[in-house]
Structure formats: C-alpha cells, structure tokens
Amino acid sequence: MEVEKDKEDDTDYSSGDLFLNKTYVQKTLECSGCTINVKMLDTASTDYDLTGQIIWPAAKLLTQYIVSKREEYQNGSILEVGSGVGICGLFVARVNPNSVVSDNNDIVMELLEENAQLSRTDGYPCQAVKLEWGDMANIESVKKQYGTFDTILGADVVYWRTSIIPLFLTIQQLLTDSSSASYILCYQSRSSQTDTYLLEQASLHGFNYEFIDHQSFFNNNNNHTLNLLKSNDNDNNQNGNEGNNNNTNNQQEEEMEKEKETKSNSYSIKDEYLLSIMKLIVFKRKNEDSGDGVGVGVVGVVVE
Ligand SMILES: C[S@@+](CC[C@H](N)C(=O)[O-])C[C@H]1O[C@@H](n2cnc3c(N)ncnc32)[C@H](O)[C@@H]1O
C-alpha cells in the first residue's frame, strides 16, 4: 500500500512536458482576399525555448509584403525557414503549389505538419519538413527531396547572433543559383550589433541586400492588412483537454468571448515603435563579375 502511494506521488518535475502548452486554437486569417486556416497558441508558450507556437509580428509583416506582391511568387519554389506556425509559407501556398515550410523543433513540427495538412485539406498543397539551420546532412536531405528553391522566406529568425552563420550556410545551399533568387528576411531588431553582424555575414556569404521600406506596401488603411476572420477555440484541444463543453451554454461567457475576438480581429501591426524596429531585407546572390564589399544598406538601395 505504501509503495503504491509513493508511486502516485512520483511526479517528475524535471520533465519538460510539465511546461508544455499544446492547447492550440484554430483561426482563419485573411490578407488581401487570401485566407488560411491555422492552429496556434493564443498566448505565449510557457516554455521559453518554444518560440514557434505563436505568430510573431515579423511573420505578419512579411505575410503582408508577400501577399501584396503575390503575382511574383506564383511560380518557382518557395521555402520558409524557422516557420513556427508557418503563416508566410501557408499564405504563399494559396498562390503557389510548390511551397515548403520548415522548422527544427519537434513540438513545432507537429503543429506545422497540422497546418500544412489544413492547407492541403483546403486544396492548397504545402509540405512541412524538418530543417535545422547549418546541419549539412539535414540540408542535403532537404535538397535531395525538394531541390533548391527560388525564394526562401524567414520571419523573426534573427534573434541569436549564433544562428546567423548557420542560417546563411543553409540559404547558400538551398537557394537556386539564379540571380533573381532571393532570401527575404523580416525580423524585429533587438540589437544594433546583431544587425551589423547580419549584414557583414551576408556579404561574407556572397549576398547583396536591399532594405524594403514598409510604407511601400504596408498601410493600415489599405487592403494588405492581415485580419482574423474567425477563431474556433473549441476545435482543437490536442492534449486531450476536453474544451469547455459543459460551459458552452453559458451565454454570458460566449458573449464575452465574442467581444474579445472582435477587439483583436486585426492582425496588423499597429504599434508604431514595433514597426520602426522591424527590418525587411531582400538578399540576392552577388553577381561574381560585379565585385563585392560590405556596405551599410540604405532603404531601397541595393548594396553590392
Ligand atoms: C521567433 S520564432 C518565429 C516563428 C515564425 N517564423 C514567426 O515569425 O511567427 C523562431 C522559429 O525558428 C525556429 N528555430 C530556432 N532555431 C532554429 C534552428 N537552429 N533551425 C531551424 N529552426 C529554428 C524556432 O523553432 C521557431 O519556430
């Protein structure tokens, strides 16, 4: 009897699963007439290492950029790195059947697979693949499976200085050799040293860069905003959570939920400060004949 009781109390508090939140919510997002269905966490993850379960502001801005230019991305193949929830790749999949989303984290991969599956169910092919930046064996196997890509997207994948070189090694291997091939990066600047280092490494890895002015495509009043159309909180409790079936007839609660949803139905970035620290950069391979050199980019100017 004593032994049984001991067993019952034998909780492993060091297990990462204790802090794992997989209570995903399914949402319908709209941008410029394109809609996608995605699952995500509605709140920040409780695990500090799991950044890919929510949508980051950079992904919202990059989505708006891509959707505003969607005609350009209808052809060729597209890879998103560090996709997390995967909205950039999923929106691209609405116009391009050769869209691949990727991440290195197993928990995030489960979610990403589900989101790619939702896209396929809606009739828009999208593949999800595990890809660890800088892992040459992994990169080779992705290359073998999909070939190289005409466009690579990355949203908020620059936050640790140490991931910059592995990322460029990955881009070098997976971007086609064509002069029009591009790596489009959008991130929230957190340190000016990291910003400078990123551009130095771009040049050292053979890339020119061009900063894109947000105002060239982004305006809260135009139709390239990203909106939440619908949220279905009961649809998805992957972890065996039962949802709140017993409470669904609580009208007051439902009304409060609806009100909350209406308030948060714009997924655009309205915070001026956040926008001001958002960097959107297009990298292209240097033309070997044109010489090189590290430079400080100016908005809208190609630096070679
Ligand atoms: C800040 S989140 C951004 C997620 C998504 N792109 C967005 O903006 O909403 C960074 C993502 O990069 C992934 N990541 C971090 N390190 C990585 C690595 N070494 N290789 C591949 N993915 C990585 C994380 O798992 C996470 O999903």
TrEMBL record:
One Gene Ontology cellular component annotation held by this UniProt entry: nucleus
GO molecular function terms attached to this record: protein methyltransferase activity
Pfam family, one: Methyltransf_16
InterPro entries, per the entry: Methyltransf_16 (IPR019410), METTL22 (IPR038899), SAM-dependent_MTases_sf (IPR029063)
Highest taxon, organism lineage: Eukaryota
Region of interest (Disordered), ranges: 229-265
Comp. bias (Low complexity): 229-251
PANTHER family associated with the record: METHYLTRANSFERASE FAMILY PROTEIN (PTHR23108:SF3), METHYLTRANSFERASE-RELATED (PTHR23108)
Record-given protein name: Uncharacterized protein
Annotated source species: Cavenderia fasciculata
